[in-house]
């Protein structure tokens, strides 16, 4: 598989873009004309820079408003093309993209367009160049790849071919089977982009909301299956117009791009094994059986406070690490680890972020296969010195820099708590409150980072994504999207903050980066759990009494049920499949959230309608702006 990306897809000047694209592992780069025009150097300089970065210039684009013009505009269009041919030869590329005309003076007619392209092909052939024709979704006369192909077919010139762009085809919902009949040698390049499903003007949608394959809602895999069925084996190139990408990290966006192409073609290969898809073999997407543990990095003081909180929540100190300053707390199937080591990754994380949930462990069928797939998709493998009596637990770095460990039942990893931890004899029978397992984990990041996190998880793990929802914080919106395992044993909420004034934004600002902000612990009886927590001295997050009057009326609750909710500060939601109950602890540190939940029947949500009310309550407890930490 040969991969490419258009310079318009990422931020920076050409030197910065080439460096990021090369580092991500791309083979080629499309030169977007505006990037070239803004560069203070010659075409030969650009060609040398690309060559030094190990990149082939796959395409020079775009050449606009060419076909079907009356005179004198037609002659001027050919003159412009000759000038672009000059630039291409100095750049060292042989392919130019011509997009279908939007000129108000252009004339329709497939034969007229074919005559224009035949002459252009003759001129290109004299220079050893090629021209690819692309149907813009908003083209004046040609806005369908089938019409573009018919023009190319009638042109009948070896130097004129077709450019297929997934966005233009999928945005207009054009039937994909038509691609399969196009000869592979007449497809000069394939451009790929995804996008969220939004009803808006096609041009505006294309210019501002494209994203990487897998980050949006368009059927890009099916599009690429049709392309692969032709036998096409040329460059797969990303052309992404996205306001956030252009203002983000060129390095991170390039890594996402390469990952998206590898994952896309892995899907194509698995859907149609008979197709010749040239990507290295890798394990299939990995099923996650749940979250095995959450690990905090802390200093001794914060570890003591966190340990006291956990004991109040019914956890018992279950073990101490055989060689490290690490303590295990447990209740039901929930394992919480507190790491106060003075060296290693956990300590480094504490120095940068303060006390934080810097790592989580996932239960998978095959830990080694999980790491192998993650590595094939560009994830950074994590290695740390293994001491006496310790296991080498497979791990990777997450998008935000935190760690994800993998444990399976087929190796000694299943015995990690027995092998690496010395049991602690409990001083009492404990004060468990009925918590059973981790229901879901919430990770918070800047809103523009959300596509990267989403792509990372859905490409590695066998998961689905829910539609994005807006969570109303008193200080702004937070975008939230959920990733779920097929059996719902693994649930992850991604929360993107647009403003530092929101609770999510405050967390990012105060902890200097994205990461785990929240975990929800499941119980089979929320009212019994609330009573036991109260007996342990727990004081829940105080919810406004106005909320309960509304809930009682909105859901038609029995007054006795509403009174039980009100007295315990339990939030309530209901969908067509069941009921949901939520109880919150006051925030810990700079906004870390612990939640207790009960799902009844097949409730599928996460209590999103309750978010504005619990956020308002949480923000009442936040340290006032400008007040120093104590």
From TrEMBL:
Pfam families according to UniProt: AP_endonuc_2 (PF01261), Glyoxalase (PF00903), Glyoxalase_5 (PF14696)
Pathway: Aromatic compound metabolism; 3,4-dihydroxybenzoate biosynthesis
One GO MF term attached to the UniProt entry: 3-dehydroshikimate dehydratase activity
Transmembrane segments: none
Domain VOC residue range list: 290-409, 437-586
Protein family membership: Belongs to the bacterial two-domain DSD family.
Name this protein carries in UniProt: 3-dehydroshikimate dehydratase
């Amino acid at each position: 598989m040969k991969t490419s990306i258009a310079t318009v897809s990422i931020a920076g000047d050409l030197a910065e873009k080439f460096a990021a694209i090369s580092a991500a592992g791309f083979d080629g780069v499309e030169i977007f004309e505006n990037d070239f025009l803004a560069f203070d150097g010659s075409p030969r300089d650009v060609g040398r820079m690309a060559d030094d970065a190990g990149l082939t210039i796959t395409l020079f684009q775009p050449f606009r408003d060419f076909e079907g013009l009356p005179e004198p505009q037609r002659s001027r269009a050919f003159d412009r093309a000759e000038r672009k041919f000059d630039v291409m030869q100095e750049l060292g590329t042989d392919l130019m993209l011509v997009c279908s005309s939007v000129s108000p003076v252009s004339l329709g007619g497939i034969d007229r367009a074919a005559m224009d392209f035949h002459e252009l092909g003759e001129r290109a052939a004299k220079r050893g160049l090629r021209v690819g024709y692309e149907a813009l979704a908003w083209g004046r006369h040609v806005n369908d790849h089938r019409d573009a192909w018919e023009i190319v077919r009638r042109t009948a010139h070896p130097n004129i071919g077709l450019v297929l762009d997934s966005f233009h085809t999928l945005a207009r919902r054009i039937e994909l089977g038509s691609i399969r009949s196009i000869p592979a040698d007449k497809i000069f390049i394939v451009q790929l982009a995804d996008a969220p499903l939004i009803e808006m003007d096609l041009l505006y949608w294309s210019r501002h909301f494209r994203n990487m394959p897998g980050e949006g809602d368009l059927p890009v895999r099916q599009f690429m299956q049709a392309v692969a069925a032709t036998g096409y084996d040329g460059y797969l190139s990303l052309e992404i117009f996205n306001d956030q990408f252009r203002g983000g990290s060129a390095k991170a966006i390039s890594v996402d791009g390469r990952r998206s192409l590898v994952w896309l073609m892995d899907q194509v290969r698995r859907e149609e094994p008979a197709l010749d898809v040239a990507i290295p073999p890798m394990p299939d997407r990995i099923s996650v059986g749940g979250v095995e543990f959450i690990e905090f990095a802390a200093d001794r003081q914060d570890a003591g406070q966190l340990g006291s909180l956990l004991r109040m929540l019914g956890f018992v100190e279950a073990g101490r690490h055989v060689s490290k300053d690490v303590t295990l707390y447990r209740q039901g199937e929930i394992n919480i680890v507190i790491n106060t080591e003075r060296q290693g990754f956990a300590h480094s994380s504490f120095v940068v972020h303060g006390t934080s949930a810097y790592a989580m462990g996932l239960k998978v069928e095959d830990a080694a296969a999980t790491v192998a797939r993650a590595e094939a998709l560009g994830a950074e493998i994590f290695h740390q010195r293994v001491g006496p009596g310790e296991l080498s637990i497979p791990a990777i770095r997450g998008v935000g820099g935190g760690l994800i460990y993998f444990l399976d039942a087929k190796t000694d990893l299943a015995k990690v708590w027995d092998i690496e931890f010395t049991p602690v004899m409990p001083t009492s029978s404990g004060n468990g409150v009925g918590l059973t397992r981790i229901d879901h984990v919430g990770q918070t990041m800047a809103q523009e980072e959300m596509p990267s996190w989403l792509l990372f998880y859905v490409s590695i793990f066998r998961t689905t994504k829910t539609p994005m929802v807006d969570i109303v914080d008193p200080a702004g919106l937070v975008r939230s999207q959920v990733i779920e395992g097929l059996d719902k044993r693994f649930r992850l909420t991604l929360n993107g903050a647009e403003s530092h004034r929101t609770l999510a934004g405050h967390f990012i600002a105060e902890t200097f980066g994205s990461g785990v902000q929240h975990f929800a612990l499941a119980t089979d009886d929320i009212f019994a759990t609330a009573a036991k927590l109260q007996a342990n001295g727990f004081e829940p997050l105080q919810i406004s009494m106005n909320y309960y009057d509304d809930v009682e009326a909105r859901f038609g609750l029995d007054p006795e049920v509403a009174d039980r909710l009100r007295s315990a500060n339990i939030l309530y939601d209901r969908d067509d499949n069941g009921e949901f109950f939520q109880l919150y602890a006051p925030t810990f540190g700079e906004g870390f959230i612990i939640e207790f939940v009960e799902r009844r029947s097949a409730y599928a949500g996460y209590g999103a309608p309750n978010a504005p009310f619990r956020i308002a309550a949480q923000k009442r407890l936040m340290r006032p702006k400008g007040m120093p930490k104590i």
